[in-house]
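Q: Entry one of two.
A:
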Amino acid sequence: MYACLPGDFERQSAILLGCNELLPYHPHTLVEIVGTLIDRIPIIALVESESQRKDLLALLCDWGLPAHLLHFVSLPVKGMWVRDYGPSFVRTRSRGITILDADYVETDRPNDDRAPTELAELLKVPVVRVPLTFEGGNVISNGQGLCITTKLLVKRNEKRGYDEAAVRRVLKEYYGFDQCVILAPLMSEPTGHVDMFAAFVAPNIVVLGEYDPKTDPVNADVLNENAAILAGVQTRWGPLQVVRIPMPSNHGSIWRTFANVIFANDTLLVPRYPRVDEDLFDKAARIYASLLPGWDIVGIDAHTLIVQRGALRCVSLNIPWLDDRFAPANPWRSRRTYRVTSTCCQQSP
């Protein structure tokens, strides 16, 4: 029915942030994200109310940020995990954009499932209901008809009477996925989502986490087996290139990751965890820099966020290039470059 779900790494109109919970519970992370991106790409802040909008403006002004550049959307949603319950933007064969609204099941936050349709009305984009229980964090796309997910997606849809073949048919019909690679999720990691250990950086390149067998032998094997499966996938440009990046410690059942990133045109935000595996962050940042030449690689403190079982991609949603409706008057004003240090990516003079 549709051409394809774009890749996160493709050109974008804006970034949507789940500020409704980021603001009260993770203000430092929110400030770092906004401070890095606010003069690079339009940011749409999802808030619950007018009072929350004012609180966010006050926080950003306190940090000396140009808060007037933000766009705001007020919806009665509770969760910050906008990646999971938010809309999927797919290209139509006529190169237009349609929003897909799949079912998001969260019994204590039923209003979150309303977000795709309400955003479609705001953006004046057509919306289509999808007969699938779907969490956006469990699908990554190469933008050319290939997706990667985990076995959890099939399990989520067993109550519908779907088997794996049925799930694949829906993904092809609505999302345009001619190929769907279904991997094993991390053992004991609570979300079961693929974006906790993998990310496409190009149509034919995927980064995949790698655990030190001395620290997590079980998940080291899980990811090595996933790497072998992915290495056998064919793309339009030949075999899929699998690049391994280190996985930080999951000590204390805190599932830290460097794969759960935000792509924002030529800027990549990578979660970092101060005082935990800082050498591994440096290594991951260098790998991303080698794969994304000309991009700025910026570390964002996600140490409080990851305790809630998610990182940067989870609280954000890429809005692909629609037209100029979100384009700022001077989109690349005050461009900055960054260098990787032992603690984060510091601004260069």
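Q: Entry two of two.
A:
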Amino acid sequence: MTVLLTTHQINEFKTKLHDRFMALRREISAELLNFDDENYADLAGLVHDSGEASIADLLVDIKLGSIDRQVQEIRDIDAALMRIATGNYGQCCDCQEPIPIERLTAYPAAKRCIVCQETHDRTFAHRGQPTL
């Protein structure tokens, strides 16, 4: 099905995606530089017991988790820019129906309509996480 976005709307989304991409790159660079300044060895040198070691590990994991989320958002943005280039932007990757403009406005990198995203989230909610 043809996506009902105008060339102007697509260009606006492309600009928003590019701006967010650049902002994420700056944030990641700043976090990595800050992470280098507070490297784990220095933090671990201040550890006096196992409780403090756990806190040090948690702080490192939180910083790495934040960077992982930002990298994933960059991947989503890159995929959205590729969809723009191939003419598939604004089309749900699962049902091929147009993604509502409100959803794209809220999250320009969206690749699924709300219904398909909710289904995907329920189906793959625990992907990559250990289970018993």
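A: Comment on entry two: The helical segments are 7-37, 40-45, 50-86, 101-106, 114-123. Residues 50-86 form the longest helix (37 residues).
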